[in-house]
């Protein structure tokens, strides 16, 4: 009975996350070309979105499932700064670093911070971005605990 209740809660949270991602993508209106949505595989695994702010800055959001311990609903919201120091012939290969907040809801509520570091490749001919990130972090509530996450993903530029 408890497992069924948790499953229903997780499904409800994931539906709300998808709704927030779609609503956010629609809300950007004229700058929609600077928005991308897709998936991230790793820790966590789920939906990912990025909104470019200009001058190499972006906001990154994930609504996902964490497999740590017994599993939990997971969300993070990061500010990222991208650097174009990596010279390639086609597309853009950027490295990035940022900072953000994370939330996980499982058997208990955890709040924390994370520092994503990674690479993103934007294809020149197709509206796709692939990325790889590592994100050391720390839970701050209910207890201080160091942890980390990361993954690979792909996003479609709207």
What's the structural blueprint in terms of helices and strands?
Elements: H1 2-27, E1 35-43, E2 45-54, E3 57-66, E4 72-86, E5 92-105, E6 109-114, E7 117-122, E8 128-141, E9 145-157
Antiparallel strand pairs: 1-2, 1-9, 2-3, 3-4, 4-5, 5-6, 5-7, 6-8, 7-8, 8-9
Please give a structural write-up.
The chain is α+β, with helices and mostly antiparallel strands and 158 residues long. It has one domain (2-157): Porin (Beta Barrel), CATH 2.40.160.20. It contains one helix and nine strands, in the order αβββββββββ. The chain is globular, with a radius of gyration of 16 Å. The relative contact order is 0.17. Residues 28-32 have low confidence and may be disordered.
Q: What is the fold named in CATH at topology level?
A: Porin
Number of helices: 1
Report the uncertain regions: 28-32
Under CATH at level 1, the class stands as: Mainly Beta
How many DSSP-defined strands? 9
What percentage of residues falls in helices of 4 or more residues? Answer: 10-25%
CATH hierarchy: architecture = Beta Barrel
Head-to-tail CA distance between termini:
41 Å
Percent of residues in β-strands:
over 45%
Number of domains: 1
Based on secondary structure, the structural category is alpha+beta
């Amino acid at each position: 009975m408890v497992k069924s209740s948790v499953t229903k809660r997780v499904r409800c949270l994931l539906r709300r996350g998808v709704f927030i991602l779609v609503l956010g993508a629609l809300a950007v209106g004229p700058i929609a070309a600077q928005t991308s949505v897709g998936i991230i595989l790793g820790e966590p695994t789920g939906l990912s979105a990025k909104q470019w702010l200009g001058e190499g800055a972006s906001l990154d959001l994930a609504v996902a499932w964490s497999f740590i311990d017994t599993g939990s609903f997971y969300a993070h919201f990061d500010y990222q700064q991208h650097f174009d120091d990596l010279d390639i012939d086609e597309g853009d290969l950027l490295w990035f670093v940022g900072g953000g907040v994370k939330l996980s809801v499982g058997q208990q509520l955890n709040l924390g911070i994370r520092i994503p570091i990674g690479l993103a490749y934007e294809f020149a001919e197709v509206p796709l971005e692939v990325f790889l990130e590592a994100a050391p972090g720390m839970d701050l509530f209910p207890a201080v605990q160091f942890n980390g996450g990361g993954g690979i993903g792909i996003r479609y530029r709207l």
